[in-house]
Amino acid sequence: MLSFDIRSLESKAEAVDGELPPTDPVWVEGDPLPQGPIRVTGRLSAAGAGRFYFSGRMAGTATGECRRCLTDVTSEVDIDAHLIFAEEELDAEGEESDAYPFDPSERLLDLRPAIREEWLLAAPAFPLCREDCRGLCPQCGADLNEDPQHTHAASDPRWDALRDATGGAAGDPPISS
């Protein structure tokens, strides 16, 4: 359960033990969804008038594509979360606060939007299948991890005139006289 009665929170803290599935409507199109549900555990308590504090953990598995070779990658995400929920969206100076706003006229405090945001910040934006990933060949798209000796015999025809003038290969250093 990730929604709590605001009136009961004002008198006593609540244990948080729930899951946010990837099928939940809180996710927006284009979000990197977790592979399965995000497990959320912790404690939610009052932190002054119109303010609540969540302290706990979020854990799940993020999926994505390797930024270099485009293979599927899974990453475990397990973070400590410390969140403040406040009635106001602006602090006393009129600036945005770090607190997640909620409507005090609502009966329930919904943690799901804050969990979504924290997940998006914690999940790797540019995952790698491994640190030494060589990526894809820019000419043909071959996976350079599978064939580290991959080369192309064809040379760029723009270098033909230079190769003919020097009598060497296009990659050879120029001949000086």
Q: What is the CA-based Rg, rounded? A: 27 Å
Structural class designation: alpha+beta
Overall spatial form: elongated
Strand content: 25-35%
Overall helicity: 10-25%
Strand line-up across the major sheet = 2-3-4-5-6
- Low-pLDDT runs of 5+ residues are none
Q: Please provide the count of β strands.
A: 7
Q: Strand count, sense and closure of the main sheet? A: 5 strands, mixed
Question: What series of H and E elements makes up the topology?
Answer: EHEEEEEEHH
The count of helical stretches stands at 3
List the helices and strands and how they pair.
Layout: E1 3-5, H1 6-11, E2 14-20, E3 38-46, E4 51-65, E5 72-86, E6 100-101, E7 108-110, H2 112-122, H3 160-166
Parallel strand pairs: 5-6
Antiparallel strand pairs: 1-7, 2-3, 3-4, 4-5
What does this 3D model show about the protein?
By secondary structure, the protein is α+β, with helices and mostly antiparallel strands. The protein folds into two domains: 3-122, no CATH class; 134-171, no CATH class. It has three helices and seven strands, in the order βαββββββαα. It has helices at 6-11, 112-122, 160-166, and strands spanning 3-5, 14-20, 38-46, 51-65, 72-86, 100-101, 108-110. The strands form two sheets. Strands 2-3-4-5-6 form a five-stranded mixed beta sheet. The longest helix has 11 residues, at 112-122. 15% of the residues are buried. It comes from Roseisolibacter agri. This is DUF177 domain-containing protein. Residues 147-163 have a biased composition (Basic and acidic residues). Residues 144-177 are annotated as: Disordered.
